[in-house]
Amino acid sequence: MYRYDDYDQQLVDERVAQFTDQTRRYFAGELTEEEFLPLRLQNGIYIQRHAPMLRLAIPYGNLRADQVRMYGHIARTYDRGYGHFTTRHNMQFNWCELEKMPEILAKLATVQLHAIQTSGNCIRNTSTDPFAGVAEDERIDPRPWCELIRQWSTFHPEFAYLPRKFKIAVNGAEEDRAVIRCHDIGLELVKNEAGETGFRIFVGGGLGRTPIIGEEIASFVPWQHLLTYCESILRVYNRFGRRDNKFKARIKIIVKSLGIDEFRRRVEADWAHFKDGPSTLTADEVARVAACFVDPDYQALPKTDAGYVQAQTDSKPFAAWVKRNVRGHKKPGYASVVLSLKKTGVPPGDVTDAQLDLIADLADRYSFGEVRITHEQNVVLADVEQSALFALWEQARAGGLATPNIGLLTDMICCPGGDFCSLANAKSIPIAEAVQRRFDDLDYLHDIGDLELNISGCMNACGHHHVGHIGILGVDKNGEEWYQITIGGRQGNLTNLGKVIGPSFAAADVPDVIEKLIDAYIAHRHEGERFIDTVHRIGADPFKQAVYGDKTPAQRKVANG
Amino acid sequence: MAKLIKNQQILDDTWQVLTLDDATDAAAVTVPAAQWIVPLAVWQAQPVLAARGDVAPLLDGADDPAELADQLGTLSLVAVNFPRFADGRGYSIATLLRSRYGYTGELRAVGDVLRDQFNYFTRCGFDALQPPVDKYTDAQLGAALASLKDFTDPYQASATFRDPLFRRHARRAA
Q1: Is the pLDDT of residue A559 over 50?
Q2: Ordered domains of chain A (ranges, CATH)
């Protein structure tokens, strides 16, 4: 993992000092609400329904055990004993006092944590594959590149007041686990015919109220030019992106209105003047950063641990957990573990202070002291010896972190929704819980198999409902909360947006609707076929029929389109 | 009188910004004597202004700095307008003027120029910052000078740091 040198540390410390003074001036009446707004946002602070919310950055999803313990400390000391992992490698605390924020940020800085640019119209935290460095299908490790992007984007003086927020994701594996085509810039690490590393670059993707799949702007940009090329994209966006309407201000809108060819022409015209300039990356700098991401001290182990195999035979619950929550690893005898934060009755992504301490302990004990956070709001221990899995499972289970449901219907992505978020049109956490309770039979759940159900409480789509196999979107209909259902969305290499099945539903009906969709899938599926593949094979009609029966959806009004 | 932050000092300044409403013809408007910053449209419509020496062009967010490219070698002042502090187009305009077009004269930020943006302004190449008249007391402006140095060693290359951090310093290996 990357460790700060004195320059990194100095910048974070100086940021804390800067924001401490800004907060002081705000309370002294020297800064207006409007003036303070972007300053607090770029330090991760929202004013929410109940209290300020603090969003902390987890750069490309990587954390050390001591950092996780610091989260536990913050949760205990300044919050109500819990935090929330978001869908973009962030940790959120919901109950901190604004006056205490500078103090909290100063404590976080002591363990190289911060809230820099986690909100506001600037370049946000870079996200990537949670299995980076250990995935069997990895071509190039994305983490050094993410760290280089982190440094370049942190306090970039030109891009702190963009038309709107700006998100970058990087993928270096055969299968895209970072949803790169739903980001403002999506970077795919590739090698050219000469074996040189570079980036295939997508631009203008995003979910939100106008979901768009990103388009290719460059098929191969050599690694040296990553930062200057991104700067030219940002510069064209900063100058020409719309500022008259915040709902039309994302880069995807300007890419669509100019067309990808004209947008590319403008970017390359700008880049011609900055390419090979001082921001061109050097082999030395890449090597310096990459040295932080070398393999840990792996043991030479047999490919399969006999005790581990035996334990699965002896314990059905352990076997069920292994089936869903344990993944293969590039090193013989090792595995990656996903700790589930999707226990029924607990809001998806929520984690208590005691669980944070346990996660840190498990990381120290079993996984070289490192942790990753997935965009599906779970926790990964990436480097665990197979022989330790049973012990790890028992401890995780005791801490409520071993629900065997990764990739299943109950492992849903869910935004905080109307319970916390002031943007939301509808609640999302109670919907998640109602669906989880309906599908509480583990055997049935495993029989349904891989299914991604994503819930957003409003069209801003923090819950990524567009790319859920089943998506649930909270909408406001005459002051009441209704839910629109989509099916057929997916992430990964075949990323596409789901389609609305018809008119929306009241909250109480949502579990029934999901059950009808599942029943239709089970009736139509081929042997071993996943829900999403059945949807794409037979189309949406049988599912609509199952939900609406003879009432033709087309004849009824669809709330909010 | 307007205050100007220049070379880390607070100066009194006598330049005034001419605003043009939609009904006024850029070619017909009279630019009075002595130190006026005028919209690009006026500057272009009245080529004689360039010879006066007491008039300077103002670029708005939508203006293309390329329009001034041929004149930059002879200009001693170019201003960039920030209609709202949250409108960041001027940072890119400044970057282009300083790097792509090689402008070396005074580059002044005018409009909604606030102290919490001073650091980013100067790093993008503004060497003169003109906050709204009466926005800050002298004491506040004095305190704001410190914010020019909020970040001792930023990561990026910019007008004030020709090279990015990784070229300026030999950084410790992991």
Answers
A1: no
A2: 6-109 (3.30.70), 134-290 (3.30.413.10), 306-398 (3.90.480.20), 413-555 (3.30.413.10)
